[in-house]
Amino acid sequence: MAAACCRLQAAAWAALEHATAPALPAWGPAPRPLGQKPRRQRCPLAAAAPATPGLDDAGSAAPEQEQHTGPGLTPQDLAGLAHDIAGFSAALRSLAAPGSGCTEAHVVAAWAAQRRSPALQPRGPPAQQEAALEALTVLEELTRRQVVALTPDQLGYVFRCYVLAGGASVPLLVALQKAASSWSAEDFSAAGLAELAWGLASCGQPVPKGCCQLLRAALHDDGSAADAAALGQHRLQDAEQPQDWQQQQQQQQQQQQQQQQQQEALPLQQADRQWEAPPQHVHEQAHSADVGQQERPQAGAAGPPVLQQEAAQTGVQAQVAAWQRRDWQAWFEGTPASKVSLLLWSAARLGCRPCDGCLNAAASALLRGRGLARLSSKSLVALLWALATLRAGHVQPVLRGVSQILVERLEACQTIMGRPGSQAGASSGSSSAATDARKDGDAGRVDGGLSSSPLCTAVWACGQLRHGDPGLLAAACGLLLTRVQELGPGDTARVLAGLGQLGYCPAPLLEAIAACLQQPGALDRFTTRQLAMASFAFASLDFFPGQACVDAIADACLDRRAEFDPRDLSHVLWNMSRLGFVDEPFYLAFVPVIMPAIRQYGPAELADIARVYSRHSLNPEWTAPSSPAAAASGAASSSDAGGGLAAATTLFDALAAQTVARIEGAEVQDVLRIMTAFHEMGLQPEELLAAVEGWADQRLRRLTPQSLSLALWSFARMGSGSPKLLQTAAGCAEQQLGAFTPGQLAKVAWALAKLRWPAPRVLRHAGAQLAERGAAFGDKEASNVLWALASEGEALSPEQLDRIALGMQPRLRGFGPQSLSNIAWAYATLQHKPAAHFLRALGDAAERQLRAFEPQGLSLLVWSLASLGCRHSRLLNAIVALCRERPALLRQFEGQNISNLLWGFCRAGFHPGDSFLQEIAEESDWRVCDMKPQELFNIAWAFAQMGYHPRRLFESIAREAGPRAFEFSTQELGNTLWALAKCRHTGPAMPALLHAVERELASREASFEDRHLAITLWSCGQLCHVPVAPALAPALEGLQRRLPAVDARTLVITVTGLADMQAAQRRRQAVAAAAQAAPQRAAAQAGKGAQTADEVWEGRRLAGVVAPADSTAGCLVPPPLLAALVDRACELRPRLQQFELAQLLRGFAELGSTAAADRLLRSPGPEVEALLVGAAQRDRLPLLVELLWAMAAWRCYPPAAFQPLAQRLGKVRPDYRFQQPTLALLGEALAAMQPQQRQQLRLRSGLVLAASGAARTAAAAAALGPAGPAGSGSGGSESDDQSMQQSSAGRHRQLGAADGRPPPACRNANDERPVGSSLDEEPA
Question: Which of these, 1172, 1089, 1167, lies nearest to 1131 by C-alpha position?
Fold first, then answer.
């Protein structure tokens, strides 16, 4: 209909195009001269009217119309008089005379001439000003007469012309508004509605409800018939019962004053919540308070104003049917970009957000042709502001186009002018920016010169739209850096708020702003809202502006603490807390402001207040003022809010009471923050808990799947939630499983797993969906589901896990570092090994983005791949190279990260090199005090397994583990001692650690598992430490009790450890006895001369070199236990390995068991004999030496085993190098053997000499140490590190060195997983 009306009007006005006078353009007046347009003067009847921020007048013209002129002047005559103020005034006076035949065409033509002609403007010489004002007065009267005859588009055009001319006659403005509301929304074209909306937004008068309904109906297509009926009824009432305009104006002015007293809101991202406010320089609340509360209406009846109810209802039904088929693209077709931007700006000013269809069509119109390029820079900024205010962030093409044009113009302006900001910019207000806007018909003209205020507005708008265009931000911040001294409080607050929203941190600009803010008096002009915005930006950007700036902000807030409203006050306190401001008097000073007005605080403000004071552990008590005036004021305010406070109460008591009172309208995250704060303070008010549980039952059950997933995600983020809350939320999630999208399902699964709330049905459903619809899950979503399954131990079937891996493999290249780490960790934790090609692809994907990994992700990736049996050597080498290339990265590793990294290297069989291990050891040494027991154990175990002994680190571990032994589990305690024993660490801290182990062994023997007890005994033996009787006796009793269930490997470790302890005790006793008998033996030897072989052997026995096989005197192991050990060994002989038999025989020989000699060596059964022969033929040489030592101790040399043993030892190559402990063991065996058996060995003379020397060195080292009484716990030379090490090394080989198998400490798969080895990833 609008298009048809325009065509008819165009035909009627065709003659106007060819008038002899300067022609009136079809869609706009003649272009104004370039340059800044002077401000227009007002009509004598009007006050100042606002203007538009940077919106162009290009394309603005009188709509075409039918000619209904009578005799006399024609519209063409008025156009011809546009340059003659006297003639124009005379023509208007003649039209005002009775019977002149003045029509609406004359009025439109007159306004068009006045708008485009500088000669008709009230400026210049006094005579011209007086004549122009007289003409405007007459034109105003003519407009009042013809207002009801104007068509919709003419009405919008005249309305805007009148406001631009400065007219503010209240009767005329009310008449224009009422005439506009009498038309249907579909009667307006997009350009006409833009003119009308601009006039309504800029006239300075409150917008009546009818106009608001009209705009909402025009910009929406989803209204209801009831809304349209309400609009029709409203128009009918307006027509039948006209109000006195003076009374209406008075009411509207009162409403406007009330709204101006309320401060505007600016959206600030406070932690996890937004609070909203439009910028003060562009947004004024010009409509009544009830506009924002109205539902979006459907358009009313079509056609001219109706005066009967029946006609109104008929028109409503017709419009509802027609507008349900609304074509937005056709409505905007042909509308220039300037009019589209004008419409969007006006809608934003009036608080009327168009529907998405309308916004999308408007975006298409803006992008059509070169529409955006024809807008001036200030118009583009105003468009950005409008889109930000309308929350139209989904029109990304428009945002990108505007950003690109602004960047090009700003860069070109800087290049041409030589310095940024040289041109005169726009004023700070949005209205003046529109007034100063120029027609920009030349698209190629450089128009980038913006003042500071529009630049700040652009940054603010980008922040609200989350449109962080790097080029635009860099250019704008670069220009603002040179003009930072020119920024006013509003500009500073806006640019800081925009940067905070975007997370964009230009350090030079922020430092310059901070330097300005800390100047004396700089913050005096800031409002409380602007102080909140400044503190928000610094806190959200994690940018510390300097203590002087923070102190200045704190002082300014304190000076105006009585002026803050609840929202600003809560935000300021929370932001200052985030900035690390810990001055308790500062927070306590706000308590007298908070408590009297506590009833005005909503849930969001209560949450921020609670978080601030719980963070600082403050719960001040407040007493109501006692003065009569204060008491009366407090009582009145309290009664208004619904009840007063007690005379003396604490802050958190008041917060709890107000939360209970306002919980019905609270958001989920606000309630969670409040509950978290009370939990941190250790407070659990019963009334609050009951209210929260009741609220949860009602609120959570009404949430949509999306809202429920966000609520659970918030629960997990804050790590809080009462059981009732979680139970309700989990139940609701189970009921809506089929309604969740993949992303929402991943959030729900992650949140429940993070909160450790059992929800197996939800987790299994999420895993099944991931297996079936893997392509619908993003990388974070897939990794979150797997992480949740692994964390809760809800393993899927192997087929489902393999299907998930197969579906993810082609997409692994696009996965993020954290997702890759979590996926690998999940499969390792679920103990399911996917296909090798999947693990290889995962490692390749991680290697390509290795520099993006955090320390935790790197360590978990290495740990997980090693647990899955995947050795990705290229990835491991790249990790080592990266850590060595970036020392700062290695310094970021925490104890758990180092533990997992070393464990993964060791498990994968990868040696990173001694230099890297030394760097890791140095970093670990700094963190020993902060490490958990398992981290200490894993690090020590890994170093021991890789054969690297960092003495300083091991000494720190021993020093730390001693006092904290009670914190260690039995596995951690035994395995830590095992690692130190394997590396033969004998530092000054070892005696204290060994005594601590004795205490734990005595008190916790029953909690030791068989393997852990065996490892502890073996470690004590390797360190030549004999536990005291109170610790050893329970261990031996427990061992005898456990023997029926002990496996072969545990038995060998136990016997070896007891043997080593027995050797250490017997050595001390022998050395003491030899020292006492030394004078007698010396005298006897001097009288006898040479000794026989038996005398030599007996002397060595007395010296403690070899224990006689038939001696059980002073044995640590009671005979019943020793016999039970032998019996168990005979029972397990079918399960014994060849390398275990040699160790077992040597142990029993050391313990002096004749029964073991008889049953295992002298008369073995066929199975044992076969083991002996196999060991003699195939065991490694160190094990052959152990077997030979046992034979020598028992003086039993079975031919079937001794002959192959002698042949192998006799064929040892000269270049073979035995380790020192093995050589000492061989020397002891040779000393104990008879000459006949020694000759059968046929050893090389050099090897015999080396073995004898090693045995003497070991015996001398033992003799140097102070001998203690049996069972004293003194393990040889405790004070002499070197001496103790030689004594220990001189005894026996290291456990596990013969077979190369994983050490007993970590052979159990259940013991291999580091505690807490997971990434807590938050869903996007």
Answer: 1167
Helix spans in 793-816 (H): 798-808
- 1212 near 1188, Cβ under 8 Å? no
Helices (H), 1106-1244: 1119-1131, 1138-1151, 1154-1157, 1166-1178, 1181-1194, 1199-1210, 1220-1232, 1235-1241
Q: Is 194 exposed, middle or buried (0-12, 13-18, 19+ CB in 10 A)?
A: buried
Share of the chain above pLDDT 90, in %: 33
Distances (CA, A) of 884 to 585, 639, 684, 879, 1120: 47, 68, 51, 9, 57
- Residue 1110: its pLDDT value, please? 41
Least confident window among 101-115, 422-436, 638-652, 826-840: 422-436
pLDDT, tens only, 338-380:
999 999 999 999 889 899 889 999 999 999 888 888 898 889 9
Taken in order 127, 129, 135, 138, is the CA torsion positive or negative? negative
CA distances, 250 to each of 173, 199, 203, 257, 274 (Å):
14, 20, 16, 11, 36
Of residues 825, 855, 1003, the one with CA closest to residue 927: 855
Q: What is the mean pLDDT of residues 639-644?
A: 43
**Which has the closest alpha carbon to 904: 851, 941, 955, 852?**
941
| Mean pLDDT, residues 751-780 taken together | 90
CB 770 within 8 A of CB 777: yes
The type of residue at 545 is: P
- Token reading at 704: 């949509």
Tokens 């205010």, located at residue: 389
What's the DSSP call for residue 1162? I
C-alpha closest to that of 420 among 442, 391, 396, 452: 452
Calculate the dihedral angle through the C-alpha atoms of 790, 794, 799, 804, rounding to the nearest 10 degrees. -40
Higher pLDDT, 289 or 1259: 1259
The model's pLDDT over 129-179, given as tens digits with 9 standing for 90+, comes to 788 888 888 888 888 888 888 898 888 888 888 888 888 788 888 888 888
> What's the rounded Cα separation, in Å, for the pair 413 and 423?
9
User: Judging by beta carbons within 10 Å of its beta carbon (0-12, 13-18, 19+), is residue 244 exposed, middle or buried?
Assistant: exposed
Confidence band, pLDDT 50/70/90 cuts, at residue 1309: very low
**DSSP H or E run through 622:** strand 621-623
Residue with tokens 């393993």: 795
Burial class, 609, CB count within 10 angstroms (exposed 0-12 / middle 13-18 / buried 19+): buried
Region for 999 from its dihedrals, namely left if φ exceeds 0, alpha if ψ lies in -120 to 50, beta otherwise:
alpha
The pLDDT of residue 1088 is: 58
3-state secondary structure of 287: strand
- Measured in degrees and rounded to the nearest 5, phi and psi for residue 876 equal -65, -40
Structure tokens at 630: 């204060």
Amino acid symbol at 473: L
Nearest to 198 by CA among 348, 5, 383, 355: 348
Residues across the chain = 1324
SS3 at position 121? coil
Tokens of 1020: 């004590």
Q: Which pLDDT band holds residue 222 (cuts at 50, 70, 90)?
A: low
Q: Could you tell me the pTM of the whole model?
A: 0.60
Which residues are paired to 273 by β-bridges? 270
pLDDT at 235: 39
Task: Find tokens 């130190």 and name the residue.
Answer: 980
Concatenate the DSSP letters of all residues of 595-658 into one string.
TTTGGG--HHHHHHHHHHHHHTT---EEE---SHHHHHHHHHHHHHHT-PPPSEEEHHHHHHHH
The confidence score (pLDDT) of residue 880 equals 93
Question: pLDDT for 75-106, tens place per residue?
Answer: 887 878 878 888 888 888 888 888 777 888 88
> In the 8-state DSSP scheme, what is residue 773?
S
916 CB-near residues (< 8 Å, 6+ apart): 880, 883, 884
What are residue 683's phi and psi, to 5 degrees? -110, 140
